[in-house]
Specification:
Elements: E1 2-7, E2 17-23, E3 26-30, H1 31-37, H2 45-48, E4 55-57, E5 68-71, H3 72-81, H4 87-105, H5 115-123, E6 131-133, H6 134-148, H7 165-180, E7 189-194, E8 200-207, H8 211-232, H9 242-248
Antiparallel strand pairs: 1-2, 2-3, 3-5, 4-5, 6-8, 7-8
Domain Bro-N: 3-106
Protein name: Bro-N domain-containing protein
Pfam family, one: BstA_C
């Protein structure tokens, strides 16, 4: 499952961004975003009328929430039924610009996704149901929080090496479990983690019941005690944002 968040480039639609979800060769859309773009006053009723095979609940949380997803066929049906005069303009943008470009390049637009975001997208559906990965949780608790404060984690450090804080967090979390929760030290399995160059490497995924322990470790150990050492030799600009990050966690 690959997640892409597309900035809206159409001025006359009630939509800040469009989320596309790729499952195999099929693309899905968040129903509420589509109905908002097409000016449906009642956003639930048109979704209820869709055939069962054209809608589903997201298999994983998206930005912390579960959403109803709809197929391309359902998007066409909603466009056809919409009273918005230029609804077909939205359909053409999605089907003639957004989706072909994602299929061709893996992303939409002129600017390539940051490496951290791209790896999150690539691995969004590679983790087993009932488990979480380090990068999936850090996308919200670290990358997303820093971005809201005005800082974007760069792809590379000053020495040209990739910046991958999830590697540091993953290694230290393993040690943290052994020291503070030895009964869970072996409570993990491996998944195939994909990188932007297409290479894969085995990485740990943990059962969801360990998520509260992981969140506590990130918020109370890694961010306040380890993040400074991690970033100071890689991107010192991050250091001015860490005190603000600690305040919000």
């Amino acid at each position: 499952m690959q997640l892409s968040i597309i900035p809206n480039t159409l001025d006359d639609f009630n939509l800040h961004e469009l989320t596309t979800i790729q499952l195999g060769d099929e693309f899905y859309f968040i129903a509420d975003e589509v109905t908002a773009a097409l000016d449906y006053a009642d956003r639930k009723a048109p979704i209820d009328k869709l055939d069962a095979e054209d809608k589903m609940l997201s298999p994983h949380p998206i930005r912390g929430h579960m959403y109803v997803l709809i197929t391309e066929a359902a998007l066409y049906e909603l466009v056809f039924a919409s009273k918005k005069p230029n609804a077909k303009k939205f359909q053409r943008w999605v089907t003639r610009e957004v989706l072909p470009e994602i299929r061709k390049k893996g992303y939409y637009g002129k600017v390539k996704l940051p490496g951290f975001v791209n790896r999150f997208n690539l691995n969004y559906g590679r983790v087993s149901r009932g488990y979480f990965s380090v990068i999936s949780e850090l996308f919200i608790r670290l990358y997303g929080s820093l971005e809201m404060l005005g800082y974007e984690i760069p792809d590379q450090a000053q020495d040209g090496k990739d910046i991958r804080p999830d590697v540091s967090v993953g290694r230290l979390f393993s040690s943290y479990l052994s020291e503070h929760h030895p009964e869970h030290a072996e409570s993990y399995q491996m998944y195939s983690h994909m990188f932007g160059n297409g290479h894969t490497r085995d990485a740990r995924e943990y059962p969801n019941e360990l998520l509260p322990i992981f969140i506590k470790f990130v918020d109370e150990v890694w961010i306040p005690s380890k993040a400074k050492d991690y970033f100071k030799g890689r991107d010192p600009v991050a250091l001015e944002y860490l005190p603000k990050l600690i305040e919000v966690h």
